[in-house]
Structures are given as structure tokens and as C-alpha cells.
User: Fold this.
Amino acid sequence: MKPKIWLSSPHMSGNELSYINEAFETNWVAPLGPNVNGFESDLQSYLNDNRHVAALASGTSALHLSLIMLGVGIGDEVICQSKTFSASANPIVYQGASPVFVDSERDTWNMCPEQLEIAIKDRISKGIKPKAIIAVHLYGMPYKVDQINEVALKYSIPVIEDSAESLGSLYKGKNCGTLGDFSILSFNGNKIITTSGGGALVTKSKELKQKAVFLATQARDDAPHYLHSQIGYNYRMSNIVAGIGRGQMTILDSHVAKRRSNHQFYFDAFKHNNRITFLQEPEGYFSNRWLSCILLDSKETRENLRLALEKENIESRPLWKPMHQQPVFEKYPSYLNGVSDELFEKGLCLPSGSNLTDNELERIVLAINAYFVTC
Ligand SMILES: Cc1ncc(COP(=O)(O)O)c(C=O)c1O
Assistant:
């Protein structure tokens, strides 16, 4: 059996251990400490735009806290992009609220602004104005920020920017992660930088960050004893994990460059194959190309190619199955145009890690070409 090629595996810089060792040597083995502060400040400098960052246990916890801070509760509705990972939608249900799913457009594969407005108008006509909109920059490609914000502003609904997959991407020169009322990042093992598991909430003010940190550390009121006047969560990032993050920040730009070059390599290799198409960057969009995705000419081709790659010990995965098709979410309202269903049928994510070698990339291209010769 040939060695496994993973879809997207962790890629260390070599600097991580020095931050972790320092944490051990100084006994900062806790969910606070110099690495947490340092990682937050590295992220703030990177993102810029006067944003404030709270390092948390996961991107999911960041989404959950943003819903809590927007006052989402039992009986509320929250609009969520249907084509995404379930973590975008799960926290809506944690709050006793209901997700309302909105389909994608073809230019970025993200939330369709027209469908969004149709959904908002319809929910309002039914007597429930959505409390928030969760829009996602899938696979690193920014969503149509101006158009989504325009609709959100028109109806005065705050936007939570799910930037879990898009650290390092830009929309009209501005960093993804700074484009929502709240923004979230993920440092899960497969992301562009990883802390093994972890995430961050990005806020527009210092006060909002403080509020998030308060909620993330069990909502401890200011008193010498333990005093709580609201429900809290254990969502803070540990100082050890944050040490990995500090090391990873030193190579974020090179990870973006490498993922983009993987994408270009696949594009050059298959540009003459009329059964494969790619998502291009619209003008003003810069994708970190977290995952390189291709569209095949049919669902059958997509699945057979996936199986052919699997035989070669190469991991690939269909694009996200939309939330409106998920058994756990299918009972909720959805506003659809067929785009995310088609993308799920025909789309495949190819190995995309920043640690892929030239030989591995050649092996993947050879395996795909071999499939098309035989089928
Ligand atoms: C689009 C999206 N949103 C949210 C998350 C949740 O992040 P985490 O795994 O850090 O909780 C992920 C990834 O895991 C994701 O891909």
C-alpha cells in the first residue's frame, strides 16, 4: 500500500515547542497566561482593523458565544448558510432557537444574497424576524460581503461571520475575520493554522471581548468568593494550546501561499480536462484556498473518482452536504435554489495541506488522470 495522502493535516513550524516549553517552565499550565495573551495579540495585529480577539476552546464555542451576546434564545430564528459544516448551525439549537437555511450562489458557493432577502421577508411575513445571520466563507472563498451586509443592514439584522476556514483570505483588501458584527475563527487540526483544537471570537470593541471572556470563564462576578449572576461556560483556550498558536502564526502567510500554489498546480494540471471545473476568484476576492475543490460533470463521476483515489490511498471528500439535507436539520425552514444540492453532488475536495510534497501532488494528478483514461 502506498503511503496515505491526507486531505488537510496539521503542519507545524518548529517554533511551537519553545512556547509550550516556556509555559511549562513558568508553570502557566492554565486556561490563561502569556501565550493566550500573546496569541490574541498576534491575531489582532494580523487581522488589524481595530478588532479584538478572545482565544477560545473552539470555533463552535465562538459561534455559541456570539449568539448568546446577540441575545438569541428560545423561540428565536437565526438564518444560516445551508452549505457549511454542521458546527455553523449547531449553536443555534444549543440556544433553543431554530435555524433557517439559505442556499448558495454560484460565484463563491456561499450564501446567496437574493435568497437571503427572500427568506427574511418571508420570516417577517410569518411574524418572526430573524435575530442574526450566519454567513460562511467556505473553503476560504469570501462570501459576497457587500451584498450580504446590504440586506442585513436593510432589515437591521446582525451578521456573524463564520471565518473558520478563511484566516488569510481577503475581501476587497480587508481580512476575513473582520467583516461581521462578530467573527469567528477555528484552529481545528485540519485548518490553515492549527492549535490541535481551538478557536477565537473577533469583536468590534474591547468591552465585547471582555464580555466574551467573562462568559467563557464561567461568568464569575467581581467578588473575593465565587459569585455568579448569570450562566457561564468553560470555553477559554489553554495557555499550552495557545503556545501552538503562537508558533503557527509565524508561518501563516507561507501556509496561505502553499495552499494557493496547490490550487494553481491542480488548475494547471486539469485546465484542459473538460470534465473538471474550478471555482475562480471573482475580482476583489483573495481566497486562502484552504481546500482545493473541483466540480465533476456528474455525481457518478465524482463518486467514482473519489473511490479511485481511495484505492490509491489518497483522501478526498465530497463538498459539504447542505444542512437542509441533514437528518438533524431537515425539519427546519429552508430557502433553496438548487445550487448547494448540485455542488454537493458534483464537488470533490482534493488533498490541500501546506505540507504536501511535489511527489504527493504528482501522485494525485497521476491518479486522477489515470481515472479519466479508464472511465
Ligand atoms: C465552516 C465552519 N464553521 C465552524 C467550524 C467549527 O470550528 P471548530 O471545529 O473549531 O469548533 C468549522 C470547523 O471545524 C467550520 O469548517
